[in-house]
Each structure stands twice: as C-alpha cells, then as structure tokens.
Design brief:
The complex is a heterodimer of chains A (about 550) and B (about 260).
Chain A: E1 5-7, H1 10-20, H2 28-41, H3 51-54, H4 62-73, E2 78-81, H5 89-102, E3 109-112, H6 118-129, E4 133-135, H7 141-144, E5 147-150, H8 152-155, H9 160-166, E6 171-174, H10 186-193, E7 198-202, H11 211-221, H12 229-235, H13 247-254, E8 257-258, E9 272-279, H14 283-294, H15 299-304, H16 306-316, H17 320-333, H18 339-354, H19 359-371, E10 375-378, H20 382-394, E11 399-402, H21 408-420, E12 424-427, E13 442-445, H22 452-460, E14 471-478, H23 482-491, H24 503-511, H25 516-526, H26 530-561
Parallel strand pairs in A: 2-7, 2-8, 3-5, 3-6, 4-5, 6-7, 9-14, 10-12, 10-13, 11-12, 13-14
Chain B: H1 3-16, E1 20-25, E2 28-32, H2 35-41, H3 45-54, E3 62-66, E4 79-80, H4 86-98, E5 101-106, E6 115-130, E7 134-144, E8 150-152, H5 154-158, E9 163-164, E10 171-173, H6 180-196, H7 201-220, H8 229-242, E11 245-258
Parallel strand pairs in B: 3-4, 5-11, 6-10
Antiparallel strand pairs in B: 1-2, 2-3, 5-9, 6-7, 6-11, 7-8
Classes of the chains: A alpha/beta (about 550), B alpha/beta (about 260).
Chain lengths: ~550, ~260
C-alpha cells in the first residue's frame, strides 16, 4: 500500500525567484548552523521520549515517564490518567503534551480544568515545561493562542462555545474528568461535541463506582470501546456496583486507563506519626459547651436544626470567637425572631463572654514552642483563624493566614512568606487547591472536619512527593465532647491517620453509602442516649472496615495478576 | 545538544550576524545586538516604529545568556539557555530563516589558470513519517546540473571545500544544462523513489489501528438512526489521528559552483 507524499513546494518557488533576482543569499556559516540544528531536532525513532531532553529543570519519576510512554506508544494518545492523589498526573499530562509538541504532532491544544486551577495549570506548563500556555480571559484567545487553559463552565458558554467549535484542536486535556460521569449534563455534551484527535482525561477518583459512569467516561474518550449504549447495558446491569465484578470489562477499561498506585511506584514514603492530644476545658468553656448541648432538649431547636446545635458544639471546641460569630449570624438571619429566641441567643452570648481563655490555643502555643520548627495549624473556622493569629502574635510567634478563597497570587505569596519569614501557617481550607507545603512536616489539627476526605487533603498538603522527613500530625480534641467522640470512635478506629493518601478515596468510593458527614450529623443529632450513639458509631466503623477488607482483597488480586 | 555545544552555537550565530560578543566567560556570554538582530529577536516593533517616526537614537539591546548555571559567576544575571528553552528555539528558527537560500563558489587556489566551476544544486530536506506517531530522517542531496550526477550526504562533502560568496579570480562558471527547476524535480523524484522502497509496515499498522477504532465508532452509533454530527466529527478525528502521511520539508539549499575535483 502506498502512502501519500507531500512535497513542500514553497521553497522551490522562492528559490527560482532568488535566482532570477540574483539573491539575496544567506551566509555559509548560518547555513551550516541551520543544518546542524536540524540534525539535532530530527527524531529518528517512532518510539521513545524526546521530552526529557528538553526539560533540564524537571526530573520526572519513573512511573511518570512510563505512563507518558504507554499513552503515546500503546494507547495512541487517548487515555484516562487515574493515578492516586499526589503521584503527579499533571506532570504526566505535561510530558505527553510536550512530547507531541516536539514531534510536531500537536500544535493547537485546549485544556479544561476547574476554574480555581486555571492559573496554576498555565503557570506550571510555562515554568516546568516551557509550553506557552495562556489562561483564557478574553474571547480572542481561543483563536490567537495555540495552548489555552480554561474552565469548562466558561468554555461551554456562548460566545466561547461557538468559537471553540470552529477551532481545530490536536489535543484536549480535561482535569477532574470524573465530573463528566453523567452523560445528561451540559458539560458532558459540550465535551462530547469537541473533536478529539488526541485526548487525556485526568481524574483523581478511581472510576470504579457505577458501571454507568465508567461507560460514560470511556465513551467520551473512545466511543465504541465499550460498545454501544444498548449493547453495553444488555450485557452489564446498569446499576452494577463495581468494575471488579467482570474481568473482561476490567481488561477493556485498562486498555484506555492508567492508574498508578502509590505502592507500585517504588518511591519511599516518609512515615506518619499521629499524636492525639486530649485537652480539658476550663470551667467557663465547659459551661458554654453545656449550655449549647442543652439546646437539644429545648423542643423547637431540635426540629429546627440539629445541624446548628452540632455546629455550635463543634465551634465551642474551637474558639469562643467562632461561636459568637455564628450566634450573631443566627440572630441577624432570623426573620421576626421570637422573644424566646432572642433571649436564648443572648443567654449564650453571656456564656461566650464569660470565657476568658482558650485551652486549645494555650496548648498549641506550648506545642509550637516545643517543636521549634515550621507548623501548619488547620481550623475549620475563620473566627478561630483570626483569633489564633492575634494570640500567637501576642506571644511573639509570627504566622500567616491561608484560605481557599485567596486568589492564586495571594496563595503563592502566603506560601512564600511562610517558607521564608513565618513559623506558622494558619489555614482554614486545605481544599484540592494544589498548594504544596512539603518543606514543613508538622500539622496541628486544631479542630477536626467531619469529612475524612478533607482530613486527607490537609495531610496531603505536606505528605506528598518531595517530603523528606517523617510527618507529625497532632490532633487536638476536647475531652468528652463531640470532637472527642469523632476522633476516638471513628477516625482512630478506622486508622484514618495511618493511611496513605489515596487508599481512603478508594475505600470511601467503595462504600457508596452517601456522605459520611450526614451520617455523623444523624448519629450525634438524633441519638437519645450516649449508648445509642456508640452503637451507631460502631455500625459506621464496621462498614468502613468492611470496605477496607474488600479493598485489601482487590489489591491482592491485582498483585496476583501482574 | 550539550550545554557547551549550545554556548558555541550561540557565539557562532551572533558572530555570523555581526553582533559583538562583549563578554565570553565561563558558562555565560554577553552580546550586543545590532539593530537588525534586535528587530529579528526582541519582538518590539512598536519601539522601532516609534524610533523611526521620531528620529531618536536607536538603542539595540544587550543580552546575557547563561549556558551553564553551575559555572557562571554569581554576579552575572541573564537568561538561562538550555535545549528546551523557547529562546533557543527562536534562535534555531531564525538561523533557518536567515539561511534558507545560498549561492557559493569554491575558493580554489589555481592562479593564472582559468578554472571552470560546475554548478551543483543542493537540497537539504527533512522527511517525516507521520501517523499517530512520527519520525524524521535528514537528507542532503546534491545534483550536478551538467551531467546529472546525484550525490547523497552532499552537505557533509561540502565541509571539505573552501567556499566563498564571490566568484574567485581566474574562474568562470559553466551554465547549467539542467535548469534549476527541473533539477529540483529530479531530486524530488529521486526522494520519492527512495521513500517508496522503504519499509512501510508502520503505515500498515497505523491503518489497522485506524480501522479498528473506526469499527468501534460505527458500532457505537449503530443505534442512532439519523445522521449524527458527533459521528462525523469523531470519524474525522480518527483520520487526523491515524492517517499515514509522509512530508518532505526543506531545511535549506542553494547553488554551489565547484571545481571538478571537489565532489
């Protein structure tokens, strides 16, 4: 079979023109240099990676290089990258993109990421990969720039959508692609309509959930790989829980998906040391906490919101400032508050005012002095954050605040201040916001989030690639409070803190019994007695244990295969 | 390209473009751009436009390149250059652009003897084999425009010859019997014939992959009765992804007048 040969004739026309006009002619030295350059840029083999040669400041890890090679050589440039959190999916995507650009196979690129990550993606592509990626801000960018980073929400809206559909993209990268699991959404439809010559879908959560979601994601990447919709659901039950039920399907999915696991990377991970520090309330603090707890027996309150009571209880374990802030809000937001309501709040405010010290803050100060190194304090509440910053300053300790809502530039600035000037970083939101703080190895959990994934993300900020020391995690809990229960009955039981990031999301997705937070609110809010609460908590932990065992079996099975 | 190669390349590039190398130290070099090279590399048309309008004194830039961060003295500030840096690739492009076409004469030492110089057409090309993957080969072909002799690795052979842009004394050029235009066609045909004899299993395999994915795609849209726009888009995407193609692109080339002993 013959292959079409295209011969660039523009050179020849111009050459004839120059002969007729007797020049202008180039210099011999430059002529020789140009041939020399081209000999360096020629890529002699179909296989292998050129990108590393072009990236002297980046040392990709073996599994990242292997992934890039796999995607290009065996998956023909269409793949789902589903590594566990923290293994560097962005690096893998960058390597693949760079490789295609060097080989001249890709020029026009569209990168769709969550809005909060747009700047970071373009920054990383520019600084680590020397790829001139541009964050989409003006509509002309689509046409004028070759590599554009944007959020799906912007891209799918007019006038952008129409312009994008006219572009001829060579490669499309979508971060957080698991959000596209539902094929009825506008976002799904938008991505489906794009022409995907090469395509990378990045997802942090493994797509082992529902078979329907797997079908949707794979069909987006490679329609027909799992068959047509009717044929697929004739064969597999729509609500089948797990991919693992079917070896054949698993194999098919693995042809388009790469999932590196931490354990397989061969990278030595530093250890996690967890210390629970139980703290006693002062009498005034205790009075405040009990006054709030008593609200539950005040008829109206329970029905109205066990959630508010719970929130206030948790806040009372953090700082009086956070309680006060919430109370003030409740009062302001209530339309036509009854006298009784106002009195109730006022009563609580007097209790707040009676509190003069913060036992946890004192403990934190003591600990920070002892550690005598960089420390990150996480709290759920902004009022606590502000209080702590003031409190530490009173005692001569410099700190910087950090919030998920900060703009990218401010985040980077705060990170830098923390690295170079301050001893403590006080953060309210770990979020998957991609700030890396691996130069620090001490975390104080001043209070605990009720969503274990959030806790994982907190720890994941420092326990990631590049962390050289063991990570110290200090959990603060006030004795005999909801906090204490959560920590002792749930988190410690399921050995949450000893887990390596990534295991947990596997476990939680396996469970598929809804939001843990809702369960907790139910347990603490609706239980009539201490005993009932304990039993419910035990049920919850045993479910998590079950999922854990299931996962262990899986990984054994996987190990057996390889 | 090693860092030292890059360093030497930069020096040769700027010298060839008549820019003064003001400093050439360990791991770095500083170059004073000429007006032309400032326009070529610095991308500031507004400045030059403004200057020309107002008749100000032109002030082309001075650049410092760091070619080895480990060796460079601490006080030197500049742009770090490595094989992947956009600046180096800009200079690569510029090198090619400025030397696409050339005409040179052999600077022989024959004195008092009228020496005939034979016309040669030189074409340096890159042949790219492309499907969803790609590889290139570099080819340098020379064609003698009188007797039609075809020579491979022509550029390498020219390295042995002393060349000059002006016709030397005691020389005369022979008029080509083969016109440059048909000379180019001969080289093109030669390259095509050569490529056709190549092993093209890579293309067959790409077509197989294409075929496979196309079958899957058709199966996926089997249930859909009416014409589906997504189906057409995906089909086109598969073609762009896999269709094997061979591109011959030019690096540079030109006319060389050489003595009959030269090649």
């Amino acid at each position: 079979m013959t292959v079409t040969i295209e011969f660039d004739s523009s050179w020849q026309d111009e050459f004839i023109h120059r002969i007729e006009n007797d020049g202008p002619w180039g210099s011999w030295e430059l002529f020789k240099l140009a041939v020399g350059v081209e000999k360096h840029l020629v890529i002699p083999e179909f296989e292998g990676l050129q990108a590393p040669k072009h990236l002297p400041n980046l040392t990709p890890l073996p599994h990242q290089l292997e992934t890039a090679k796999q995607v290009i050589e065996n998956m023909n440039g269409k793949a789902i990258l589903a590594d566990e959190v923290g293994l560097g999916k962005t690096i893998e995507a960058g390597l693949i993109l760079k490789e295609y650009m060097i080989r001249g196979l890709v020029k026009k690129v569209l990168i769709l990421v969550p809005a909060s990550l747009v700047t970071q993606w373009s920054f990383e592509l520019n600084s680590k990969f020397f790829i001139p990626a541009v964050s989409q801000r003006k509509s002309y960018v689509w046409e004028q720039c070759d590599v554009v980073v944007s959020s799906i929400d912007t891209a799918k809206r007019e006038p952008h959508r129409e312009i994008i559909n006219k572009q001829d993209y060579d490669l499309i990268i979508i971060d957080e692609a698991h959000k596209l699991k539902n094929n009825k959404t506008k976002n799904y439809e938008f991505v489906q309509n794009l022409k995907k010559k090469f395509c990378l879908l990045l997802t942090a959560t493994p797509i082992q959930n529902r078979i329907e979601e797997i079908f949707n994601l794979v069909s987006l990447l490679k329609p027909g790989h799992l068959g047509s919709e009717t044929a697929f659901f004739d064969k597999y039950k729509r609500d089948a829980r797990s991919l693992n039920d079917n070896e054949h399907l698993k194999e098919l999915v693995n042809k388009v998906m790469i999932r590196n696991r931490r354990a397989d990377t061969g990278i030595e991970w530093t250890k996690r040391h967890v210390e629970t520090i139980t703290i006693e309330f002062t009498p005034q603090e205790k009075e405040l906490y009990e006054a709030i707890t008593d609200l539950k027996s005040e008829g109206d309150w329970v029905q109205a919101s066990s959630f508010s009571v719970m929130t206030l209880q948790r806040e009372a374990c953090s700082s009086r400032e956070s309680v006060f802030y919430t109370l003030k809000n409740m009062l302001q937001k209530k339309e036509n508050p009854t006298k009784a309501f106002e009195d109730q709040i006022q009563y609580l405010i007097t209790k707040v005012e009676a509190v003069q010290t913060n036992s946890k803050a004192e403990k934190a100060l003591e600990l920070i002095k002892k550690i005598d190194d960089k420390v990150i304090i996480f709290t759920e509440y902004r009022a606590t954050q502000m209080y702590l910053q003031w409190y530490l300053k009173q005692h001569g300790i410099s700190s910087v605040p950090f919030r998920g809502g900060f703009k990218r530039g401010k985040k980077d600035w705060m990170r830098e201040l923390f690295q170079n000037r301050a001893q403590v970083l006080i953060a309210t939101e770990a979020g998957g916001e991609g700030i890396n703080l691996q130069f620090c190895n001490h975390i104080i959990n001043f209070d605990l989030p009720w969503n274990p994934m959030r806790l994982e993300q907190r720890i994941g900020r420092i326990h990631r690639l590049g962390q050289e020391k063991d990570v110290m995690i200090y959990n603060f809990a006030i004795k005999n409070t909801v906090e204490d229960h959560i920590l002792k009955l749930l988190y410690e039981k399921i050995e949450l803190f000893e887990k390596v990031i990534g295991d947990l999301d596997d476990i939680l997705t396996k469970l598929d019994f809804g939001n843990i937070e809702d369960h907790l609110i139910d347990i603490f809010g609706q239980s009539c007695s201490e005993g009932e609460m304990r039993i419910k908590m035990e049920n919850l932990t045993s479910m998590i244990d079950l999922a854990k065992d299931m996962q262990k079996e899986d990984s054994h099975a996987a190990a057996g295969n390889s | 390209m090693q860092q030292l190669e890059i360093h030497n390349f930069l020096i040769r590039y700027f010298q060839a473009n008549e820019c003064e190398i003001t400093e050439n130290g360990p791991g770095y070099l500083t170059v004073q751009l000429t007006i032309e090279m400032d326009k070529e590399l610095m991308n500031r048309p507004f400045y030059w436009h403004y200057l020309e309008k107002t008749g100000g004194i032109p002030n082309p830039m001075k650049l410092t390149f760091i070619t080895n961060p480990q060796m460079v003295p601490e006080h030197i500030k500049g742009e770090t250059i490595h094989f992947g840096s956009p600046r180096l690739h800009q200079i690569f492009e510029s090198t090619k652009k400025l030397s696409s076409y050339i005409r040179l004469y052999e600077n022989h030492n024959n004195v008092n003897l009228q020496t005939p110089l034979m016309p040669w057409l030189c074409m340096n090309v890159k042949v790219s084999y492309q499907c969803d993957r790609k590889r290139d080969i570099y080819k340098s072909i020379g064609l003698q425009l009188i007797n039609g002799q075809m020579v491979e690795d022509f550029h390498d052979r020219l390295q042995e010859v002393h060349l000059t842009p002006k016709i030397p004394d005691y020389s005369f050029t022979l008029s080509p019997l083969v016109k440059p235009k048909s000379g180019m066609a001969r080289i093109e045909n030669y390259l095509r014939a050569m490529i056709e004899q190549d092993d093209h299993s890579w293309a067959d395999e790409a077509r197989k992959r294409w075929e496979q994915d196309l079958r899957l795609l058709e199966h996926f849209y089997e249930d859909v009765e009416e014409e589906n726009e997504n189906y057409e888009t995906e089909k086109k995407a598969l073609q762009e992804q896999y269709e094997p193609k061979i591109n011959i692109s030019f690096i540079n080339g030109g006319l060389f007048y050489l003595t009959d002993k030269a090649v």
